[in-house]
Amino acid sequence: MSLGPIAPPPRLLMGPGPATADPRVLRAMSAQLVGQFDPAMTRTMDETMALYRQVFATTNEHTFLVDGTSRAGIEAALVSLLEPGDRVLVPVFGRFGHLLVEIAERCRAEVHTVEAPWGEVVEAEAVEEAVRRVRPRLLAVVQGDTSTTMLQPLAGIGEVCRAHDVLLYCDATASLGGNPFETDAWGVDAATAGLQKCLGGPSGSAPVTLSPAAVGVIEARKHVEAGIRDPDDLARGTRIASNYLDLAQVMDYWGPRRLNHHTEATTMLYGARECARLLVEEGVEQAVARHRLHGAAMLAGVRGMGLEVFGDVTHKMSNVVAVHVPPGVDADGARAAMLADFGIEIGTSFGPLHGRVWRIGTMGHNARTDAVLTTLACLEQVLRAVGAPVTAGGGVGAAREVYAA
Amino acid sequence: MSLGPIAPPPRLLMGPGPATADPRVLRAMSAQLVGQFDPAMTRTMDETMALYRQVFATTNEHTFLVDGTSRAGIEAALVSLLEPGDRVLVPVFGRFGHLLVEIAERCRAEVHTVEAPWGEVVEAEAVEEAVRRVRPRLLAVVQGDTSTTMLQPLAGIGEVCRAHDVLLYCDATASLGGNPFETDAWGVDAATAGLQKCLGGPSGSAPVTLSPAAVGVIEARKHVEAGIRDPDDLARGTRIASNYLDLAQVMDYWGPRRLNHHTEATTMLYGARECARLLVEEGVEQAVARHRLHGAAMLAGVRGMGLEVFGDVTHKMSNVVAVHVPPGVDADGARAAMLADFGIEIGTSFGPLHGRVWRIGTMGHNARTDAVLTTLACLEQVLRAVGAPVTAGGGVGAAREVYAA
Q1: Do the two domains B21-281 and B284-404 of this chain adopt the same fold?
Q2: Which of A202, A392, B192, B226 is deepest in the core (most CB within 10 A)?
Q3: Which of A68, A241, A280 sits opposite B68 (nearest CB)?
């Protein structure tokens, strides 16, 4: 076997993520390494922490990266916060709610759910009722569940959690940077994300922020590992079940003690820093507004083409829309045609929605007019080619109207 | 705060790793993303699996990447192989043996050790005696412990494990690509590594290979997660305590079923593929020989300068040497001078060796004549400047003799 260097085909990634990365992020990731404790490295880590405080809208000191995909961030938060037997409440309104349940169960927590049908969000009243009944230590919720495109309102849930002294964890992977997220204002104790959605980077690094209350819970379980512990590093509380995802140790690595844990993934750090730097340079509010504009254009466009939108659109994330596959159309065949003939990727969904909806994203670097209009133009051609009813020019025309308004 | 793009200072990383990355690996990592299930993506994943089979010297089908640093690979192997209460035997001869103990304990295994003093390796006879006594399910061992530079011989341990029906796991993070590693010939059931040592890449991706026996153990514990499971996905055995590091699910993502788990860290995948591609292009044996040559030159060089080498040199890894800090020299001050005045990083060590030895690496892209000679030339100047006794020209001269031979 003789292989050449990587040469990926040109793609416009308009699915539910990963989206096409911002070329500036990829350039940052080609920078050469420095040593793990080089002053240039620790300064870069500190800068990255400061940038993500702005992204998460928080003053939390403990705002840093977990070296893994967004799912690593979720598990790090849950395994560090939850002790075996702790009660957790999870509002479930799509696949990623199920993922929180799954991970919390593996932490040996006692997991309770409050569910909404796919395509809807959970009412704050239902959450409050469940909190009163379950009396959880932690409420874990997805902000934007890409499987259904729904965006769960969090301000009300934050109030409920504060009123009942419940820690609040949010998975903001799919939504952060493209929809409002207010860690401090909403009373979120722990939030995690990924780079591959609205932040314009590749998967593989999970930004996380922890409130002082969350830090207190985690620090109370600190066990510095053998081989690097000092005599005065007394083990405390129930040891966290993971070493890699032990946020007590990860905080000691990112914090002033700089205690060695993993070897920071320098290239992913460079990428994560650049994602946040570009977002802060644009302005987080401006980026959210940009996602709102292009998401509205895509929504109008798919409707203008004659497609029906899935779910409660008033609670949709800005950055992704799910459309029903027209009757008689082979859902995966049409996606394959988009990819093969136009180099454009759109998504399917999971479980009950697989083959029933397409998910079309407008996120990160691809929340742009040309990306929206090109996708609509090409989707019209694909639908036309398979004989689906489609309004000629209706998609692009409707999107243009949004931009003109 | 207004920050510019990342602009790391030029460094020659001659510590125990990360080493300076091969620029070709960094270029590969600047390639644009493709979608998670794009045919170009799945082909790249398959190519990467095939390349790492050559790197690990194995025919194991299940040879793939864990999305995290080398420590994530270690934990993935241990948490997937070990059930609570399983007996594990860990030969400990440095910090990273303690890390295996630590991680296995967090898996709630019953951990036993057989120890050697730092600077030595563990005798196969001592391992066999411990295996007979403990009757472990798994033996977990570090091949090259960078904390001491020792390279544990594994062929004999593999024989012991086969004779006693014990699974063998090896952490080859620091050694793979720069020292012989024979997964199949030695009877290794699971091995994991990282990119940042002899493979010439950045930290953040953990290659792993699993024997059919290891796969059998892991598959017997498969629980496909809610939200994506089919009705015939029956839960089996004791659920693996981590979701992110659940190798049963990771194998279903890398395998023909392509069952969604995490979103593969595409940029790290590109980097991992390029690391292995370059190694295979050079030839794994040739790369090992190159590390042997430059390691020998560095060893001769530090001795030629008048420095004393730490530990049992007959069992040293090719790619790193530990030298005693001369009496009266400030160990960290000298390292800081190397960095500030010459842009060269050399390492300290952990625990009992911190401040007592420097660790000097010759690995990956930096296993090169110019890197070795430059490091020796500059270290001589740093030692001279602090008044340490040093043989003028002795380091470079001794290294040159190795190259001339």
Answers
A1: no
A2: A202
A3: A68
User: Which class is domain A22-281?
Assistant: alpha beta
pTM for the whole thing?
Answer: 0.98
Mean pLDDT rounded to a whole number for chain B = 96
Q: Quick one: what percent of chain B has pLDDT higher than 90? A: 95
pLDDT tens-digit readout, B82-128: 999 999 999 999 999 999 999 999 999 999 999 999 999 999 999 99
pLDDT above 90 covers a percentage of chain A that reads: 95
B324 contact A CB<8A: no
Tell me which chain B residue has its CA closest to the CA of residue A276.
B3
- Contact call for A345 and B35, based on CB within 8 A: yes
B341 vs A165: CA distance, rounded Å:
54
ipTM of the complex: 0.97
What is the chain B residue with the closest CA to A53? B1
Domain segments of chain A: what residues?
A: 22-281, 284-404
The helix or strand, by DSSP H or E, that contains position A184, with its residue range, turns out to be helix A183-186
pLDDT greater than 90 at residue B232? no
Q: Which residue of B has its CA nearest to A47?
A: B3
Mutate which: A93, A103, A203, A332, vs B, most B CBs within 10 A: A203
Nearest one of B50, B73, B53 to A68, comparing CA atoms:
B73
CATH topology of domain B21-281: Aspartate Aminotransferase; domain 2 (3.40.640)
> How do residues B366-382 score in pLDDT, each as one tens digit?
999 999 999 999 999 99
Fold of A284-404: Aspartate Aminotransferase, domain 1 (3.90.1150)
Token representation of residue B363? 């690995």
Say if residues B77 and B333 touch (Cβ distance below 8 Å): no
Out of A221-235, B238-252, B351-365, which region has the weakest mean confidence (pLDDT)? A221-235
